[in-house]
Amino acid sequence: QQQVKQSPQSLIVQKGGISIINCAYENTAFDYFPWYQQFPGKGPALLIAIRPDVSEKKEGRFTISFNKSAKQFSLHIMDSQPGDSATYFCAASMAGTYKYIFGTGTRLKVLA
Amino acid sequence: DSGVTQTPKHLITATGQRVTLRCSPRSGDLSVYWYQQSLDQGLQFLIQYYNGEERAKGNILERFSAQQFPDLHSELNLSSLELGDSALYFCASSSGTSRSETQYFGPGTRLLVL
After folding, report:
1. How much is the pLDDT for A1?
2. Percent of chain B beyond pLDDT 70?
3. DSSP bridge partners of B87
């Protein structure tokens, strides 16, 4: 119930392609869903986040799609670039708490 | 550079020992979070402090403890260390006024328990 399941574990995409990372959750008490980007040797950095009252949020080339009924959300990276090569984590936070549950991460490699 | 500093960068110690990891939040941030990142467990939330008080607790072992001092820096104490405690430990900070605000992560402390 507390888990956030993330897939795929790794992803290779050609430059200019679309990268798609999926996450699923069980607990309907989650109400805030951020995505983090982590480069090797660095700490994670917030990329984009969404609340379940909207179905999509876009910031530049990054889009979160949210399906409340399916309890799934995904990160789409349009026009993927080699500089996007990093590990991406989805996360979820429960209403009324500051506790975060993270997915297991997706290692993205964008080929030049 | 996130503005969050963590010391030391690397730490090598033996099983059974005790270590202290230190975190200084960004200027003006009142909240500090601690996370553990390991290969098999991924990124795990450990604990959060806000202005010196514990606010949220995650998967933190009883052998681990933390505190936030009046100057807002925080320390994570790990005792009776086991091989499985080898991991990257991250500290993050935020203003602490909202769950949806950005957390800024430090560069991490890499702990190796031999």
Report:
1. 59
2. 100
3. B111
